[in-house]
From TrEMBL:
It comes from Ensifer adhaerens (Sinorhizobium morelense). The keyword Acyltransferase applies. This is GNAT family N-acetyltransferase. InterPro entries: Acyl_CoA_acyltransferase, GNAT_dom, N-acetyltransferase. It holds the Pfam family Acetyltransf_3. Keywords: Acyltransferase, Transferase.
């Protein structure tokens, strides 16, 4: 029997805190900072659905709908802050029934310090423990091993390798998809404790 859909709508806006980061719901004012970060080709070429160079009006429009998405329970997008400064974004989107998709990106100066894992771990926990989702999907370009490492460390399992269109690159890329079930996450965090 298919389990009933998770009730993701009408959730209060929450800030998640980790050892080194604050993850707060995005606001329209974050569009400018996101534009700066995504003006770096090394960041945006890894984001399959993003435009390069980024368009300021599109970015403003996108950040302008995040609050409605949150209220509707269709996407939950968090600005990643380190010492009060936005260094990236981590989100759950494409929420449908009990499934959702995890994504993240950071400014280049913040790479290599474990921040993506730390932020994503908090949001995965939010997805399973607070929203009641049963399964998360994610994925990365085949030439993005750092993202693969983050997903594997979270407990995601590789699924399929396929060709997909990349908007930022303007061509097809090899894409590796992953998934993580809430049960596997719970067993894993139980083992970690
Ligand atoms: C992918 C990204 C979020 C990783 O952020 P990060 O904070 O540097 O990630 P973490 O530090 O948590 O972990 C990265 C891991 O990948 C490893 N790594 C980094 N570059 C690597 C490479 N070229 N090959 C293999 N492993 C690599 C790191 O050593 C680290 O592993 P460790 O924890 O075992 O030491 C960041 O590089 C980024 O924002 N990239 C551009 C946007 C993007 O790719 N978003 C994801 C789209 S799927």
């Amino acid at each position: 029997m298919r389990p009933s859909a998770a009730n993701t709508g009408n959730r209060p806006a929450v800030t998640l805190t980790t050892d080194r980061l604050a993850l707060r719901p995005t606001t329209p004012a974050d569009a400018q900072r996101a534009f700066e970060i995504q003006s770096d080709w090394d960041v945006t070429r890894m984001l399959r659905m993003a435009q390069f160079p980024p368009d300021p009006d599109d970015m403003t429009g996108w950040f302008g709908v995040h609050r409605q998405e949150w209220i509707a329970g269709t996407a939950f997008r968090f600005a990643i802050e380190r010492k009060g400064h936005m260094i990236g974004l981590v989100d759950l989107d494409e929420i449908d029934g009990e499934e959702g998709e995890l994504g993240y990106w950071l400014e280049k100066p913040s790479w290599g310090q474990g921040y993506a894992f730390e932020a994503a771990q908090a949001v995965v926990s939010f997805a399973f423990e607070q929203l009641g989702l049963a399964r998360l999907k994610s994925g990365h370009a085949a030439d993005n091993p750092a993202s693969g490492k983050v997903l594997l460390k979270l407990g995601f399992r590789p699924e399929k390798t396929m060709r997909k269109a990349s908007r930022s690159r303007g061509e097809e890329i090899l894409h590796q998809s992953y998934s993580l079930a809430s049960e596997a996450w719970r067993n894993r965090s139980g083992a970690d404790r």
